[in-house]
Specification:
The chain is mostly helical. The protein contains five helices and no strands. α2 packs across α3, α2 runs antiparallel to α5 and α4 packs antiparallel against α5.
């Protein structure tokens, strides 16, 4: 069952979602919480700029991992993508397990609009995208 879940997660096209959630995560660092706190604020006009920055950063990360992979020996079975993505995913899981064990309140839809959820989900998508980088 766990293998099927990982296979299903691996088939998701995560890069467009990663770009969008990264842009939203970047916007949360704006004064006043950005568009998440007030979608009709002036900072909402900066979302296209944040999306462009996020796209460039994600592409740069993929090229960096490909560069690391290109310096491995041809007979080597190691790949940097799954390794680095696994480390990031392990951190995400630690934070999720900590949250579930520390807060006894039931999880509701209100958490989806929180800054912490947006940042953690962007990090989760970043881990999945990194895992999907093949050698």
């Amino acid at each position: 069952m766990f293998k099927e879940l990982l296979d299903a997660l691996g088939k998701i096209k995560s890069r467009p979602l990663l770009n969008v959630f990264s842009a939203l995560a970047f916007s949360t660092f704006m004064e006043g919480g950005g568009p998440l706190k007030d979608p009709f604020s002036v900072t909402s006009l900066l979302l296209p700029f944040f999306l462009m920055i996020a796209s460039v950063l994600v592409l740069s990360w993929v090229l960096c991992v490909n560069y690391l992979n290109s310096h491995l020996a041809d007979h080597d079975h190691f790949s940097w993508g799954p390794y680095l993505g696994g480390v990031i995913l392990a951190f995400c899981l630690c934070v999720i397990f900590w949250y579930v064990s520390s807060f006894s309140d039931p999880i509701n839809l209100k958490i989806l609009g929180s800054v912490e959820f947006i940042r953690m989900f962007a990090l989760y998508l970043f881990a999945i995208e990194t895992i999907n980088i093949k050698r």
